[in-house]
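Researcher: Here's a chain I'd like modeled. Treat it as a single chain, no partners, no ligands.
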Amino acid sequence: MNAIVCHAAKDLRVEAQDESALPAPGQLRVRVARGGICGSDLHYYQHGGFGTVRLREPMVLGHEISAVIDAVGDADSPFKVGQAIAVSPSRPCGGCRFCHLGQPNHCLNMRFYGSAMPFPHIQGAFRQSLMIDASQAHILADGLSLGEGAMAEPLSVGLHAIARAGGVFGKKVLITGCGPIGNLLIGSLRAAGAAEIIAADLSDSALACATRMGASSTHNLATNPQALQGYTAQKGYFDVMFEVSGSAKALHDGLQCVAPRGVVVTVGLGGDVALPLNLIVGKELDLRGTFRFHPEFAQAVDLLNRRVIDVRPVISHSVPFGEAVRAFELAADKSQAMKVLLDFGVADR
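Model: Modeled as a single isolated chain. Structure tokens:
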């Protein structure tokens, strides 16, 4: 069994590891089918970590996966060998104070695949064989590709961000940053009934994807840096803003465009930034963070299964997992790639 292991910055290896044993009751053994390369995976590959989080031991990367069930631990399990599933990487403990408060994404003992936050690190899911808890498995509908199934995790991030906004139905929304998360968020906003979705980015190809995902109109801030200026009149135009790029300038400029008592949700990670507090106070803006997800994963799979949201425009490339370095270099090249999937060799249905 092979896995994709990051040893340090720019040191990514496909290595043999022990095959998973037979599952115990409450467990499933799965063959990983497709895996999406996330921004956090790229940070580990390019920099050996992000912020204060550093790799301190070799770690299997990956947390966006679909799979096919290979073995079932319970004779009376509703799951069957051969079923295609999306696998939630979120495994809260259920016993800490945040789990009891209904905030499992803030679990003090979270086991989230491919995370160097704790030590020993939580090993990731970019491996041919994986043992999971049955609670992590969500069945994919017939006709939904394994690649689409792997998109349930990043789609969940956008759904949780919408939940943090407190509702978007009938509202005018600004999205800054149209990478995979931003574009999946646009599809989610369209499904949630947003009245108008304006997308801003620095890339024409990213904005073309935003249009396919349901943006009402788009603005390239590289070619037209003043494009959002028209939305600042009369104290601002938008009811809700999602800042997905992690850019301090995008956040600052976007705040100028949000109407009084609007909600600003920061999705992208960009480090410490200076905030225009007079503006936030004067317009009574709500500034909210959003972190991961948990219950939204089941909702994401349901939306995919019913094709309420079509994620296929976001998938730009599929690369054999044995060519992991090429796949990661491609994923880092935003001029070429949107979402790069790793193909672990399991045939689609």
